[in-house]
Amino acid sequence: VFKVYSEGLYEGDKRVGTVVVYRDITKEFEVDQMKSEFVSTVSHELRTPLASILGFTELLINRQLKPDRQQKYLSTIYNETKRLTALINDFLDVQRMESGKQTYEKKYVELSPIIHKVIGNLQINTNVHHITFTPLTENDYILGDRSKIEQVFTNVISNAIKYSPNGGDIHVKMYEKEGQLTVDVEDHGLGIPEEALTKVFSKFYRIDNSDRRKIGGTGLGLAIVQEIMRSHEGEVNVSSKYGEGSIFTLTFPIVEGKRKETDTEKRNI
Ligand code: ADP
């Protein structure tokens, strides 16, 4: 993208030419575009749960409702409030990561219990998906920040659910490969078009295809996953067949031999 400036060149009163200056403003243009994407995503993502909270509280205040109705509305309000909180935490996380202010409190932690816990929490909210976990190694200690690692698995497995709108099996497999502790999260959902595979980890990037236009999100989940994995000397990668499903692969450096959670390492990254 270029911005063009032109200026007449004069000798006395006589115009003898024109100077044209092209300035490459691709970067500014991209930043502007990202800003406006950000504003529209934020306002849409905040407005939807807020509208629902507002609507249901109005009903609860103004109408005499049967207890089961009340209960139903209250649990909707509760869930939408949780959604808002998670959303705001995502924005704050990204902000902290960008300013280099994110801190990680690392200890030796075992991955299997974390994965079990995350799956348990997510399985409650769906009965059309069946999530299984196969640990193929017992050597599953990593040096990590427990809550951040939970967030990594929550984001990746909840995406597997969200982008498999027809339900289906989600398979989590943990194994050792080339000296790395590796976890695959495999789904049989919408999949990712090839040209989008490298972009899904970028901030605010969302695939705008008709198959997923109704699915909400901010485009921050995977950017956060990538940042957390890098801060753990690990990686996240994806392979996918559009229309068939995706496999997100997380790799962590292995810690040889099991250790207790007493060794701590606090770091500012
Ligand atoms: P969000 O889900 O809020 O859009 P993410 O950063 O988590 O943001 O994901 C970015 C994009 O990558 C999503 O918009 C979605 O289109 C695509 N994506 C992520 N996970 C999957 C998956 N398991 N299957 C298909 N598409 C996915």
Automatic annotation (TrEMBL):
Lineage, opening ranks: Bacteria, Bacillati, Bacillota, Bacilli, Bacillales
Histidine kinase domain segment(s): 41-256
GO molecular function, one term: ATP binding
Domain of life where this protein originates: Bacteria
Localization in the cell: Cell membrane
Keywords: ATP-binding, Cell membrane, Coiled coil, Kinase, Membrane, Nucleotide-binding, Phosphoprotein, Transferase, Transmembrane, Transmembrane helix, Two-component regulatory system
Residues of the full protein shown: 550 to 818 of 955
Protein name (database record): histidine kinase
Keyword Hydrolase annotated: no
Main location: membrane
Keyword match Transmembrane helix: yes
